[in-house]
Every structure is written in structure tokens, then in C-alpha cells.
Amino acid sequence: MNLVEPRFSALFLAWLTAALVVSPMGGLAQDAAPQQAAVQQDVPVAPPTPAEKARSILDAHCARCHQVGRTPGQPPHVFSNVTDMEDLVRAGKLVRPGLPDASRLYTTMLAGHAPDAVFDQANPGPTPDEIDAVRDWIEGLKQPEPATCSPRRMLTLADQGDVLAKLRHTGGETLKGLRFISLARAHNGCAVSDIEDAKRAVRDLVKAVQSSPGEVELPHADDSLPILAVRLSDLGWDASQWDALAALAAAPKLTDDVLRDAYATETPLIDAGALAAAATASGAFPRLGELDAKAWHAL
């Protein structure tokens, strides 16, 4: 079901078309014990709060890699305090109070983040109900301040998949060398300035990771959605380099065989922040150290 009807810009289509050309106790105490037990049995057990439920889920499925001191010898990750619920909210990037679709913690779980070294038959990862419980916790958090931008519908993974599906009809063989960077979290965060800051930060990120000279074009894949398109050839990359970062970033996977064939990958789209984190974790891009704090915050 297409919830968003993408409108491809003339500039983007021209850019895409051009690529086709270039590529106890005893006594009385004993007597009182049964009565005490009876009283205790009558006391109802309070159900866990949304935060307690979410913490239990994160502790079971995420803490092995993302909690300091949990696994000896575990290499550093983007975040390492996943069971500190207050810290997750206070940091403001992984959890956006009241906005689960703008929260990287939730969207990463939804995308099926399951490193082979962590999830096995004994722990296959969170169930849909557990993911929904984390969503409910985030959704119930009080926003620190009211939204200041015009209302907009949250952009979901399905919406972004619709864009890739529609673009397939216009790109031909060019799609095999085309990839996408999503600014959905900035969009879902509501503030227009967040999106503009994120766009500038993505341009800085691309400069830091490209291995070919020249300016890399990053046109919008669609006029109405914050999804930037990039050619692998402009980055100086082959498909395997993108796929390696997509795996580190827990990028969402295409479920449509036709689309996988069209893009020659099952992960053509990566969240901008997740891409930056994956590129850093890979250790293959020393120029990332040149990004200033503002750029990192925007991503």
C-alpha cells in the first residue's frame, strides 16, 4: 500500500538519466507467621511500568554489546549504556520523547538489528511484541517542549520502500550503482532546521568517506521526502563497500526480490546517522575525525 505518492523532480530525473550515458523466630512469632503470609498474598503485585518493561527487553537483547562491562573484550560501540533509561532519554539522539519513529533505538530494533555474534538460537532477538513495548515506552515519554514546526506525518520504512519501488520504473540499469541516504529521523523530529542541518552534515560526511576526487551530487530521490541519492561511482566505491557499512549500520533489508535485483543489493538505503556510526566503527575513514561536533549532532 502506498501511503506516500512520490513526485520525482525534473532535476533528479535529469541527473538519473545522465548516468545512463556516463555509467523465623519461635513462640508467638510462629503463630503470627501464617497470618502475615495471608496478608502478603492479598497484596497485589504492581505490573511493570513501561520504562521497566522496556529496560528488561533492552537488557535481554541489547546489553551484551551495548552495556559497559557486560561482555569482557567487547569492542566499543556507538552507545554503551543501553540499560540506563534516563541517560537514553537525556542524550536526545537514540530516544526522542514521544516520537518513536524519530528514535534510532526503536527504528534500529524495527529494522531487525541482529549481529550474528550476538543473536543465536538461544536469543533470536526481540519479538514484535517486545519491539512494540519499546515503542509504547518512547511514545509515552513527555516531550521536553512542544513541536514548533508545522505538523507532518511520520515517515516510515514502508514509505521509503515505496519510493525505491517507484523509482525502479525510471532508473533501468543505472539503479545498480545507485544508493540512498535517509534523513527520516530528522524529518520525524519535526523541526525544519533539523533537516537542513542533516543535509549539510551528510555532505560533510560524504566528503570524509569518498575515495574519488570531485564534488559528490546528492539530489533528492523525491520532492516530498528527505531521501538523498548517491552514485557509488561518485564515492569511488564498489557495491561491497556500501554493503559492508550497511551490515554494520543494521540497514533495513528489501523483501522484494524484484527490487533486490534492480538495485543489486538488499540494503540500498541507510539512515544518515547509522551510516556515520558504521563508517566510524569500520576504522576505514580517518578523515571522519575532521567532522565538527555540529555535524555529528545533526546526524
What about the largest sheet?
3 strands, mixed
The whole-angstrom Rg is 23 Å
Q: Count of helical segments? A: 15
User: Ranges with pLDDT <50 over ≥5 residues?
Assistant: 22-34
The ordered H/E elements are: HHHHHHHHEHHEHHHEHH
Mean pLDDT: 77
Give the CA-CA distance, first to last residue: 30 Å
Estimate the helix proportion, in percent: 40-55%
The general outline is globular
SSE-based structural type: mainly alpha
> What order do the strands of the largest sheet run in, or round the barrel if closed?
2-1-3
Count of β-strands:
3
Tell me what portion of residues adopts beta-strand conformation: under 5%
In a nutshell, what does this entry contain?
By secondary structure, this protein is mainly α. Helices cover 49% and strands 4% of the residues.
Q: Main attributes?
A:
49% helix; mainly alpha; three-stranded mixed beta sheet; 299 residues
Helix and strand layout, with pairings?
Layout: H1 10-22, H2 28-42, H3 50-61, H4 63-66, H5 85-91, H6 104-110, H7 128-140, H8 157-171, E1 178-182, H9 184-188, H10 192-209, E2 227-231, H11 232-235, H12 239-248, H13 257-263, E3 269-271, H14 272-282, H15 293-298
Parallel strand pairs: 1-3
Antiparallel strand pairs: 1-2
Helix pairs in contact: 3-7, 12-14
How does this structure look, described?
Helices cover 49% and strands 4% of the residues. It has helices at residues 10-22, 28-42, 50-61, 63-66, 85-91, 104-110, 128-140, 157-171, 184-188, 192-209, 232-235, 239-248, 257-263, 272-282, 293-298, and strands spanning 178-182, 227-231, 269-271. The protein has a 3-stranded mixed sheet. The chain contains 15 helices and 3 strands. Helix 12 (239-248) packs across helix 14. The protein has 299 residues and is mainly alpha-helical. The longest helix is centred in the last third of the chain and has 18 residues, at 192-209. The chain is globular.
